[in-house]
């Protein structure tokens, strides 16, 4: 079993889910008393959030690289970043480390491709919805058309993430807001919805929606287990 390195803390609630999913999957596959070999480098999300909204991505890149190097020094054999938005720093992480990095959009694209879907809605922070780092991978590598909500709805999705979900607050009214946005996307031809923020699965589940839901937290965490248990 390979040792999984996790960059967490963005938020700690979703990082906790990563740890739970990874260990549940390892036990499911191997049985008995098995659990995952892993190490986590957890950052202070307050510092991250401040730099994000200052648009200081050079500083954010350096923080992610430092965390990744710490994991490499701790003898991790693969790195996963337990957040969607900070995959904006993935190129810097890959450039400055010598171990595999599992990208959340790549893992998600494979699952969408398995369902043979061609058009999906992407929900996440405004950074994730409005920048190309996520959509480009899904389009270029998997031929998937990605749509996002309108400007006002993007602002609502972002606000709920930062003012509620990352603080562990689950409000029924916010759930209704998300479901209404998803319903409008279905009218625009969306065949599935990507929960492209690791906190959104705290609010939206497959049973809430009539189209396939792609929980990026679960998809990414389980892909790490698949890699850790692989023989290559």
TrEMBL record:
It holds the Pfam family Asp_Glu_race. NCBIfam families: asp_race. Belongs to the aspartate/glutamate racemases family. PANTHER family: ASPARTATE-GLUTAMATE RACEMASE FAMILY, GLUTAMATE RACEMASE. InterPro entries: Asp/Glu/hydantoin_racemase (IPR015942), Asp/Glu_race (IPR001920), Asp/Glu_racemase_AS_2 (IPR033134), Asp_race (IPR004380). Keywords: Isomerase. This is Aspartate racemase. One of its GO terms (molecular function) is amino-acid racemase activity. The keyword Nucleotide-binding does not apply. The keyword DNA damage does not apply.
